[in-house]
Design a protein that fits this description.
This protein is of the alpha+beta class. The chain contains 8 helices and 13 strands. Bound molecules: D-MYO-inositol-1-phosphate (IPD) and calcium ion.
Length: 281
């Protein structure tokens, strides 16, 4: 399949970084059993991958701006176009020698995501999407799953990390969702969660506290595969709120309703409120 010029540029940058990441992943597997552990090494690998991607993209499209997980925002001559990059999404998996992580790159032009790629360096799984041209898995067209009821669905999610997010609120979300769906998965890479949803593997996805680089490419991918994406209030404020709910037209709406109920319940039972039977006075 012939890819567009911009997708070619993005894939080339990701493949170059992937070769490096794979070498570093081999080293992480060795360090896993060492006394020191692979912590610092992983931070270096992350930075190195980001640098490789940035250099490649800057060379191919000079002057574009950047938003990157490691280096933050870098303004180029062209502030209407930027690359949104996560060099290793699924860092905890990478750190633990679990081969489920990905490079995620999105192109944003005039505030709209126009192209996105997600590449798992270990498996070589490549997911691509371009605005108006569809989404592809290793060059095969992707389409979201067509299940109509949550009870038949596999839901992917992300659990808030230690010291991040509202764990109490999340427990209400997950306890409500798991009663409605066929199964729940937490694989540890939001980018791959969205790519899998676009590929029809997961039916729905929800998570809070995400950054633009975790999801920019994946949001486009889900949409181009015929799916719906919003924040948990049903608005298009995913970047500013960090909240994402995705699925096909039917189950996306059903999941939004469930999450709304869960949040209501959480507010009713939060310490110090009327519904908090267990709270101390
Ligand atoms: C994380 C992954 C994970 C999600 C976290 C993200 P990182 O990104 O996407 O699935 O649950 O919220 O921060 O830190 O591995 O690049
Ligand atoms: Ca990430």
């Amino acid at each position: 399949m012939a890819r567009s010029a911009i997708l070619n540029v993005m894939v080339r940058a990701a493949e170059k970084a992937a070769r490096r990441i794979n070498r570093d992943f081999g080293e992480v597997e060795n360090l896993q059993v060492s006394r020191k552990g692979p912590g610092d090494f992983v931070t270096i690998a992350d930075r190195r991958a980001e640098e490789t991607i940035r250099d490649e993209l800057e060379w191919a499209r000079p002057g574009w701006s950047f938003l990157m997980e490691e280096s933050g925002e870098i303004e180029g001559r062209d502030t209407t176009r930027r690359w949104i990059i996560d060099p290793i999404d699924g860092t905890t998996n990478f750190l633990h020698g679990i081969p489920h992580f990905a490079i995620s790159i999105a192109a944003e032009e005039q505030g709209r995501i126009t192209a996105g790629i997600i590449l798992n360096p270990v498996t070589g799984d490549l997911f691509t999407a371009e605005r108006g041209s569809g989404a592809f898995y290793n060059d095969r067209r992707m389409r979201v799953a067509q299940r109509k009821k949550l009870v038949d669905c596999v839901a992917a999610t992300g659990v808030p990390h230690l010291g991040r997010g509202d764990h109490g609120a999340y427990l209400h979300d997950i306890s409500r969702v798991m009663r409605e769906v066929a199964g729940v998965r937490r694989f540890g890479s939001a980018a791959l969660d969205l790519a899998y949803l676009a590929a029809g593997r997961f039916d729905v996805f929800f998570e809070d506290g995400l950054a633009p680089w975790d999801v920019a490419a994946g949001i486009l991918m889900v949409r181009e595969a015929g799916g719906f994406v919003s924040d948990r209030d049903g608005r298009q404020e995913m970047f500013s709120t960090g909240s994402i709910v995705a699925g096909n037209e039917d189950v996306h709406g059903q999941l939004l309703a469930i999450l709304k109920e869960a949040r209501k319940r959480h507010h009713l039972t939060a310490p110090g409120t009327a519904g908090d039977e267990g709270s101390q006075s």
